[in-house]
Amino acid sequence: MAIGFQFIISLFSLFSVTIAFAPILPRFPSSAVSAELKHRSHCTQNGLYRTKFFTQILDHFNFNPQSTQTFQQRYLINDTFWGGAKKNAPIFVYTGNEGNIEWFTQNTGFMFENAPPFQALLVFIEHRYYGKSIPYGGNKAVAYANTSTLGYLSSTQALADYATLIIDLKKNLSAHDSPIVVFGGSYGGMLAAWFRMKYPHIAIGALASSAPILHFMDLVSPDIFISIITQDFKSESENCYKVLKGSWKLIEETAKKPGGMELLRKTFRICKSDDFGTDSLASWLRTAWIYTAMTDYPTPSNFLNPLPPYPVKKMCEAIDSSVTKNNTLGKLYAAANVYYNYTGTTTCFNLDDDSDPHDLGGWQWQACTEMIMPVGGSNKNSIFPEYEWLYEDREAYCDSFYNVTPRPYWITTEFGGHAIDRVLKRFASNIIFFNGLRDPWSGGGVLKTISKSVVAIVAERGAHHVDLRYSSKEDPKWLKDIRKQEVKIIASWISQYYRDLKTNS
Ligand SMILES: *[C@@H]1O[C@H](CO)[C@@H](O)[C@H](O)[C@H]1NC(C)=O
Ligand SMILES: *[C@@H]1O[C@H](CO)[C@@H](O)[C@H](O)[C@H]1NC(C)=O
Ligand SMILES: *[C@@H]1O[C@H](CO)[C@@H](O)[C@H](O)[C@H]1NC(C)=O
Ligand SMILES: *[C@@H]1O[C@H](CO)[C@@H](O)[C@H](O)[C@H]1NC(C)=O
Ligand SMILES: *[C@@H]1O[C@H](CO)[C@@H](O)[C@H](O)[C@H]1NC(C)=O
Fold first, then answer.
1. Which is catalytic among the residues 127, 215, 464, 465?
2. Residue 477's pLDDT is what?
3. What is the pTM of this model?
4. DSSP string for residues in 399-437
5. Residue 176 catalytic?
6. pLDDT category of residue 31 using cuts at 50, 70 and 90
């Protein structure tokens, strides 16, 4: 069975690996979208924010008159708690990631919960080429057509968008002296950190949550991502680890037996209509293990799929359960059921569902150009079959898919990464790097505090940007403490800024 880990892993989605079950989008109460709240077509209200569009420049780095095209960039705004321009009240900006901005906004309760105490204006900016921020007149088919239209999809262009939009917004609000703090999780966290480094005249600080800015070639082992996932399961129980590790061979052997494919289909309750094979089954299981490790949150969640608290533990409990004593395939089914059927409403599993509800598809282009993040290598101790991650495979894939050659060292050329401590110690300030060590992306995160104001906050039990999520009464103490610490640091940046403003220093 060709289990070779496929090439492109978005921070959230695994491309060319089946996303087997459309995650249920958290939705707002429909009453909140009532007609009375709808303003003009360029300004709609949904209960948490108003939606606006800004005419953005397509190419910030070219003065060729032919490249002065524009596009409509979406941003979401909430001014309910804002102290106003007269008070120079702060503006919190979320630097959008590789997907629909509404999805990230809904999952960034930290900003909403801190808007009242900070009297902050909240702004969430969508990344170009995602959601509704599509160049070429909003025509996705054209924008994604080929290298010449996709060429404007890059992190540097996105950061320049954010800078341009923020400056224009401040002008419109006459909020010239309001301090900007940028926030982001995952790729959005990388952008937040880079934004503070590249545009310190615009943002006074950045909270970069689960931002793997070091997950690039020659900086991390391509095995680290899978090693962390392996450790997550192993730390629950040795048996859980062994069952997962042995599962690929078991599936392969079962498939070879007479009636084996039918047995697999029945055991895993694969839909009858589904054209399934051992490869799609393996990738379906792999997706479940990876995402569950990434979103191993301490409270019930619904980021990618609805999940119970500490879902890795739940999966291992399902595997270790005596109910399926001699039935290893049954154990694997029970574990997958935690990820794909926590709501209990799925009648059968559809392995070839490749829907993309959060609109993450553009990442594939980014992963074929500048985001060469070595992920998916798997060594002999891993719960996945051994697999060597090779840059050449990515290159060949991108050549065949887009006819494009990646620039694997561009990100570290543009933003740095080597000897990060030494560099950031001298020139950077006011950045928080949060990482949860259960999160496989933490392998490429900044895990050590670099200076008094470039601070790493590390949560041993934390998962992917858990700090940015809405708080709940059931949150463990470590999580509450981390959020308090972050708030305290941000407050110190803002008061320092006001002191400087007052004394003109
Ligand atoms: C801002 O968010 C709060 C919830 O935190 C909500 O009650 C309020 O209606 C929102 N305001 C706008 C203008 O959308
Ligand atoms: C790329 O796609 C656009 C939009 O469909 C088209 O106008 C253009 O000719 C294409 N360019 C190349 C090089 O194929
Ligand atoms: C600022 O105001 C102008 C004029 O109304 C508008 O075109 C522009 O989109 C506004 N900028 C932002 C960021 O909303
Ligand atoms: C488990 O399988 C072994 C070997 O096939 C068998 O001897 C044993 O009776 C089985 N135990 C149960 C509880 O089914
Ligand atoms: C999903 O869970 C429900 C409730 O536990 C169960 O009845 C159903 O069979 C499960 N679906 C699948 C496909 O296993």
1. 464
2. 98
3. 0.92
4. HHHHS----TTHHHHHH-BTBHHHHHHHH--SEEEEEET
5. no
6. very low
